[in-house]
Amino acid sequence: MISWERFKKTKAAGMGIVLPKFQEAATDYQDETLAKEGERIKNCGMMIKAIGCKKCGEKFFKGYARCKSKYCPTCSALKGAIWCAKLYPLLQQWLEKGNNIHFATFTIPDQEDLEYALKIIYDAWRYMTNKLVPKEWKERFAGGVKAVECKIGKYSGKWHVHIHALVLRTGYRKDAHFLKENWSKAVQHVMGEKIQVAWPNIKPIKAKDGSKNRDKLLWSVCETVKYATKINPDMETYRVAQAFYGLKNRRQISCWGVLYGVSKLVEKEMDEESDNLIKSFKCTTCGFDISEFLEIWENTGKYWQDTEMKDYKEAVEFVEKPIELNFDKNYWYDEEDNICVQTKFI
Ligand SMILES: [Zn+2]
Ligand SMILES: [Zn+2]
Q: What pTM did the predictor assign?
């Protein structure tokens, strides 16, 4: 769950920036669908769930009714937090086993048309991993997570579409050359031979760096799963419409190999509007330790503005059993002493 502070801040951004943009775009293009998306974001979090301490009556923020729009700052923040919570422990385990991770960014040349840019980047990725070097790809990498992000390029003024990926490496080997060469080939295959393709940016997260990696790993995970696109106050309305229709039926984040299945866990948690994962609760105001507390749905609709919102406390602990990656089974060492694992590729 996100904190009450974060909820208020993102809700204010949704109401103050995103909603007016969708309304403006809906008017400019006489488009009911865009207007509806705006309404959906507007109604997000109008109801929140709070829990009350039975002894002192203090109220704690517990959850909110979600709109799940890709453009809702609150739901994006929540989804990012859930992704981090699911991925981070698994990646930490991966490093602890002596394996490595590459945080890699793959780009294509900036494009005016977002739909075209998205088609290129999804096709190039699929071509590289399934057609160009499928066998080597599977041998080198046990799995990973990739996310597509769309921004307006600072210099080009066009769509800058790129993929952030966390690629799980069994053992350690430099893959920079392999990724550069094949990404260029894949993009050229879908766009045409003469296209200049920027080299992927690769930042290794090495097992041998141990706990020093913690921040780097967390930063990389957050960077990967943040959002598909961000609606800015200065974004032109045709860009808003392009983003909405371009990303409509696209899966932004996907996992493969040993991470396969994490997406489903995230979706499941996004669907559960009543976070019923509380295993322990301790009131931070009076210290009362209770197994029973009051659950209240409250209407925040009238008080959405940051300054008008009531104060809720945060003291809810979510205790969840971490999932284990079963990469201990069937592992062996290759000629370079790298740990190799038997994984399932789908
Ligand atoms: Zn209390
Ligand atoms: Zn929402």
A: 0.85
